[in-house]
Amino acid sequence: MRNLALAALLLATAASPALAQKVAPILTTPEARDVLTNARPAEARVTHVDLDLDVDFDSRTIGGTATLNVLAAKGAKEIVLDAVDLKIAAITDEKGNKLPHAIGPNGSALTIQLNGAKKIRIDYRSGPNASALQWLTPEQTLGKAKPFLFSQGQAINNRSWIPTQDSPGIRQTWRATVRVPEGLIAVMSARAETPAGIPVAGGKRAFRFVMDNPVPPYLIAIAAGDLKFKPIGPRSGVWSEPGMLDAAVAEFGDVEKMIDAAQALYGPYRWGRYDMLVLPPSFPYGGMENPNLTFLTPTLLTGDRSNTDVVAHELAHSWSGNLVTNATWADGWLNEGFTTYFENRIMESLYGKERAAIYSDLDYAGMVRDVKNAGGETAKSTRLHGDPGDGAGQLDYLKGSTFLRTIEYTVGRAKWDVYLKGYFDRYAFQPQTSAGFLADLRKHLIKGDKALEAKLQLDRWVFEPGIPSNAVHVKSATLAQVDAMLAAFNAGGPASAIKTEGWQTQQWKRLLDGLPRQQSAARLRELDDALGLTRSTNAYIQSAWFDLAIANRYDPIVPALEEYLTRVGRNLLVTPLYRGLKAQGDWGMPIAQRIFDKAKPGYHPVTVVAVTRILG
Ligand code: BES
Ligand code: ZN
User: Fold this and answer.
1) Would residue 230 count as lying in a domain?
2) What is the DSSP string of 345-366?
3) 220 within a domain of the structure (yes/no)
4) Start and end of every Peptidase M1 leukotriene A4 hydrolase/aminopeptidase C-terminal domain (predicted)?
């Protein structure tokens, strides 16, 4: 049974129909409790956030006011927000009366006495080391002329610049007015009401944004810099620094087709525009599904559209993640596993079965590898529903997508697609849990069919470690060809027999990840000479090659490795290399320390934290 507390889905606020807001339900079942928030939403929760902010590049802070609409249960006296290192100047109700508040006990719970207020106004400023924000100097940008700022909210970073209830199960509509220095453009993850901005006092330019759909607050995002826009199609376009805009438009030219394909599969795109923002290379992820404005790493720009799976992925999050959202980070697979599956279906629609099979095959192989690395079939960290942050490797993505593919193959695609489309409708703009998904699946797809229930092994997939026996392994003929060349090389054959012409990123990955970790210096040199690995400009190839070279203490790559690690800050392509260097003790640690010292000022806080954790 789903327990919808406090609210109807479309509850209009009494004041004025023009201000009518959608108030999304929260879940109050025990498995929906978010241990990473201080909020107690069943008592009092935020339903809307109105931001009025100045971006200050000198002090590297964002400050102004956040006005929150509060929905409080009868008798609730206080509301608890999440706030990390925020300097609070004042908190008042809508009439300007001061509201008593306290921070503590863990430094991130902001408790405010409501005194009957329905709206509270917080006057505040972010700290200079806000974990969501990266402030780049002009020298750290492509254009070298203007500074740049961007945010990364997922999972719990937004509490470092927005005082609200920072939990994925507490959806909020929001609006923002943001002022940046004249000459810069501000963008956010919402509808832009003033794309070019409006000049205002103090040599600044103001930008207004509106998000009418209730969203989990990790999806509020901002960027500001020397940004330009070019359209791709009627609903889509790209923002980036001027110097890479044309390359980005060319690389992501298939996005309109992707939107069409996604809608044909699982129902309407409910967000209006789908634009993309290409960030500087320090952006810590491949992509981030910020609504209306996916954030992307520039390492996708390889000129051959071979990394547009990331766009398909972030677009798919417009359903799995942004529309139906994991209620807690312990169910992150509901976002990432569903999205990886959906991404694959979009790729199949656009590029055919074989291209999709490449990704499915890589998902399966990655799942097997991650389970093995986590300690095998019984390792708790290999469960889909686990402790937040405890998941091994990429299993939310790989085991999650393989699970859904297994359901698809078991019940048949036609039936499964009808089910999944219905699922997105039933839970649109709502939080979801593993238990909630399984209950829905049983109600709408399995419908008491005992044989089917037994075949699917649902509880094993979701709550138990390891890989269930019914896991479907889709195999790719393209990758089988790579495997054959790999086997020949591993049997002592020459590197020159590996024919890489026309290869896309995924084939390179299969080859490089498939080489046994133990290689002689002579064999590594032979590979490098034949395949031009060290001088590759494809970040995926570089990362996989450096990983192998590091495992063998292969010195010749060190200068290229240093150049790479001081330029690229994408977590997934960077942290494995630091981990590899650390594993090489007296050879690797000094290299890692030296490069990290140099690279650190250019990394986003998320990457700094990740690398610091590895190097200790
Ligand atoms: N939502 C994730 C990024 C993320 C994950 C941010 C966890 C914070 C915590 C995004 O959709 C994603 O999965 N990005 C991937 C690319 C994807 C194609 C696998 C990435 O960054 O590599
Ligand atoms: Zn994702």
Assistant:
1) no
2) HHHHHHH-HHHHHHHHHHHHHH
3) no
4) 478-615
